[in-house]
Each structure stands twice: as structure tokens, then as C-alpha cells.
Amino acid sequence: MKKEILIVATSVIPAAQIKCVYTYRQRNPGYIPVMVVTKGLTEYYHYSYKRMLITRVGEKAFYLSLQLLNPLITEPLLVGEQIFGEDLYLSRPALYDLKAVPETTNQLIGMAKNYFKGAREFSRFNEGGLTLPYYYHAVLFATFAKYYFLFPKVTTVARLLVEADRWPELKEAYELLGQAYALSSGMYQHYLDRAEKYLQAVATQIRLKPVPPLYAAEPSVLYSC
Predict the structure, then answer these.
(1) What per-residue confidence (pLDDT) applies to 208?
(2) Which residues, 6+ apart, have CB-to-CB distance to 45 below 8 Å?
(3) Are the C-beta atoms of residues 68 and 108 closer than 8 Å to each other?
(4) Could you tell me if 8 and 30 lie in one domain?
(5) Which of 35, 57, 77, 132 could form a disulfide with 180 if both were Cys (CB 3.0 to 4.6 A apart)?
(6) Which CATH number does the domain housing residue 43 bear?
(7) Does residue 163 lie within any of the structural domains?
(8) Strands across the sheet with 52-58, in order?
(9) Tens-digit pLDDT profile for residues 172-211
């Protein structure tokens, strides 16, 4: 699988532009998350390919995202494995000392809304392979925003899933990923409607402020297969 991940990554990004590649396992077999960090750029994209969800992030955006505790950045560093390039964060114990900054919750809920917007768009074309991953990311970011509003210390998806009674929306979204290619478009709308209410409730709780320009734009999807 590592070889296949690298083949996919280098087929769309020249190897000379790649700083490192991380992957990490989730209990859900519906997809494989991958993070590709490129050199010196501020890009932030997503790919969907053969049940792989690839986050492509430029090096500058990577360090800013790390400071803001973006879960798509912190998760591979905390629980994942580097399979190509250089290690961007040599001390894993130091990672666990990271704490939320004042902008963290605002940025995360802003990104959650952008992911939700993408999920709505994909659902109109019955794109289950992207609708549910985007729906999951919307719920994921909203849940992390809520968590960091209450607790400043960095955490992982696995830890939140263990506490399913406290974060039931995340657990449901996570489990649905394995059904991304089986659910009907009507079911997409059911879950998206629920997610929209959840995002609104979290935003109200943390008193959402306008999102600064860096993350105001919706994350781009270059292609899906």
C-alpha cells in the first residue's frame, strides 16, 4: 500500500516538489488518509483516488495549519507514519505539548463550513465518493473546534472517537465513510441537514467571528477517481 500511495502522489506532483508524505491508519476501512507536504508553497488541496483521501499542503501552509491544530495536519504527525521525504517534526512528545491559540476555534469552524459547502455541491451530482468525505471533514472540524473551545491541549481523532458519548456526531460521520459508495443521494441530504444544524450549534457556542483570508477559500479538489 505504501508503494501505491507514493505512485499516486508522484503521478500528480513531481517528486522534486514533495517535501514529505505521511499516511496513517483509521479503524474505518472506507478510506486511507494521506498527507503530502510540498516545498515552499501555501497550497491546500484534496484528492480522492481509489479510496485514498490525499491532503496536499504547501510547506508554509503546513506550519500555519500545525499552529492552528488543523486535525488533517496534526493527526498524521501524532499517529501516522512518514513514508517519503524528511521528517517535519522530529519530536512527537513535543507535539503533544501543543495547545490551541485564540484563533484556533474560529479557523476550524470556518473550515468546517467550507467543507460542508463542498459536500452540498457534490451531493447535487450524486458523488458519494466525495460527498461523505467532505461531510465527514465538516463534522470533524466542527467537533475539533468545539473540543478546543473547551480544552486547549492537542488531541487526536482516535481519542475523540473513544469518547463517543461526548462527540456522537463525529462517531456517526466517521462510520458513514465506509458507506460512501452505497448510500443513496436521498440519504446524503438527510445527513447533510443534520450536519448543518450541528455546525450552526457549534458556531453559536464559540461565537464565530469572520474567517481571515487564508482559510476563507474552500479547499480545492483537483480530481477524483
Answers:
(1) 55
(2) 55, 56, 57, 219, 220, 221, 222
(3) yes
(4) yes
(5) 132
(6) 3.30.460.10
(7) yes
(8) 81-85, 18-23, 32-38, 52-58, 44-49, 220-224
(9) 888 777 665 566 666 778 888 888 999 999 988 887 554 4
The pLDDT, as a whole number, for residue 190 is 84
The answer for residues whose C-beta is within 8 angstroms of residue 40's C-beta and 6 or more apart is 58, 59, 60
- Check whether residue 118 and residue 170 sit in a common domain: yes
Question: Around Cβ 76, how many Cβ atoms within 10 Å?
Answer: 21
SS3 of 37, please? strand
CA gap 29, 43 in Å, rounded: 28
Residue in this structure with the C-alpha cell 479503524, named with its chain if needed: 27
Residue 33 inside a domain? The answer is: yes
Question: Which residues constitute the domain of residue 137?
Answer: 104-210
pTM of the model: 0.84
Query: Residues of the chain with pLDDT > 70: what percent?
Result: 82
What percent of the chain is predicted at pLDDT more than 90?
A: 28
- CA 81 centroid distance within chain: 17
Q: Quick check: 131 and 119 in contact, CB under 8 A? A: yes
Maximum Cα–Cα distance across the chain: 46
- Cα–Cα distance between 148 and 23 in angstroms, integer? 24
Residue 146 CB coordination number (10 Å)? 25
Tens digit of each residue's pLDDT (9 = 90 or more) over 5-37: 888 788 878 888 999 999 886 655 567 888 999
Residues 112 and 205 in one domain: yes
| Helix, strand, coil share of the chain (percent; to 5) | 55, 15, 30
Full 3-state SS string of 133-157: HHHHHHHHHHHHHHHHHHCCECCCH
